[in-house]
Amino acid sequence: MDYLKLSNIVAEEIEDGILLKNVSDFNAKHIFECGQCFRWDKEEDDSYTVIAFGKVINVKSNGNEVRILNTDFKDFKEIWFEYLDLGRDYSRIKEVLSTDDTMKSAIKYGEGIRILKQDPWETLISFIISANNRIPMIARSISLFSQMYGQTINYNDKVYYTFPTIKDLSEADLSDIKSCKAGFRCKYIIKAIEMVRKGEINLEKIKSMKTIEAEKELKKIPGVGIKVANCILLFSMQKYDTYPVDVWMKRITEELFLKRKSKTGEISDFAQKRFGDFSGFAQEYLFYYARELKIGKS
DNA sequence: TTGCAGGGGTCAA
DNA sequence: TTGACCCCTGCA
């Protein structure tokens, strides 16, 4: 039988896709619904149809098995293995972070979360749209934006749209972009497109910088403040020493750890000291835990 | 039915 | 440090 082995994972070719065996710490619901990405549809069979890197795949997890449809060995090896962060040993991360009962509970609750390695450009625009916005609205704006400028992909009798590249956006102007209903963020999107097109902002270069410098560079883009910058760093640039602080993270960190009202800066300092280079993973477990249980929400 | 607060922030004053 | 900001939902 034809198969592929990457780290401990064994991949088998199946009809219209691949089946991964011996995968630990992989829960599709937790991965896609923890707020790190917006371009997925949950299907009736609890699988997730995901648009990323110009392709559409369908992902379903079941214990130590993960089924990915509409793909092959080549794409798995070149794209999805990295995208799904399958080379990382999450048991080690969980062990390091399990220093107290709070973290143990959060980790247990969000078992199988993985931090995706998303495309920096898509992550930049997505999180500009996320500012002072709600998840369904964010997802809708990104979807409309992709419909307007992305390329079409047909899969299972449905049409999907890739996230537009800079080239796809050569004709984009403010009045058009406004129809993606991102409101006051549209002008930031236009400016971000312009800065990347002109090379004033080089996302690949930023990715190679240290976290502090990279954050400073990203904040040059209008609409990108400290929180949005941290999300881009964590979700697309593998800067795991970041701890994006939004209202949820502020509430949960105050309630579970600091036991008092705190400023955003104090929350970040706490995370840096407590979680260090694993801050981003801690953030994901805590964020999912807080939102699902509505912790800290009065 | 209508009106209004507020949301997974950022910016400018 | 504070209010405005698009758009939409939830709730009086």
Question: What does this entry look like structurally?
Answer:
The chain is α+β, with helices and mostly antiparallel strands and 298 residues long. It is built from 14 helices and nine strands. The chain has a seven-stranded antiparallel sheet. A two-stranded antiparallel ribbon has the order 8-9. A hairpin with a 2-residue loop joins strand 6 and strand 7 (65-69). The longest helix has 15 residues, at 135-149. The model has no long low-confidence stretch (mean pLDDT 94). The chain binds a DNA duplex (13 and 12 nucleotides) through helix 6, helix 11 and helix 12.
Key phrases:
9 strands; 47% helix; alpha+beta; seven-stranded antiparallel beta sheet; DNA-binding; two-stranded antiparallel sheet; 298 residues; globular; single chain
The fraction of residues assigned to DSSP E strands is: 5-15%
User: Ends: how far apart?
Assistant: 56 Å
Helix and strand pattern: EEEHEEEEHHHHHEEHHHHHHHH
Q: What's the gyration radius in Å?
A: 19 Å
Look at the structure and give the mean pLDDT. Answer: 94
Low-confidence stretches: none
